[in-house]
Amino acid sequence: MSGYLNIPEGWERLRSSGPGRFVTSEVVRRPDGSEVRWHSRAHRKRQPIEVTASGARERVWWRPHKRSWWMGVLFAVGSTCFLVAALAAQWASTPREGIGVTFFIGSIFFTSAAYLQYSEAVNVERALEPGAGRGRWKPASWEPRRIDWVASAVQLAGTLFFNISTFAAMKHGFTTHQTNARVWGPDALGSICFLIASELAYAEVCHRWVCFRNRTLSWWIVALNMSGSIAFGIAAVASLVEPSTGLPLSARISNGGTALGGLCFLIGALALIPEAASEETPAGA
Question: What pTM was computed for the model?
Answer without folding.
Answer: 0.91
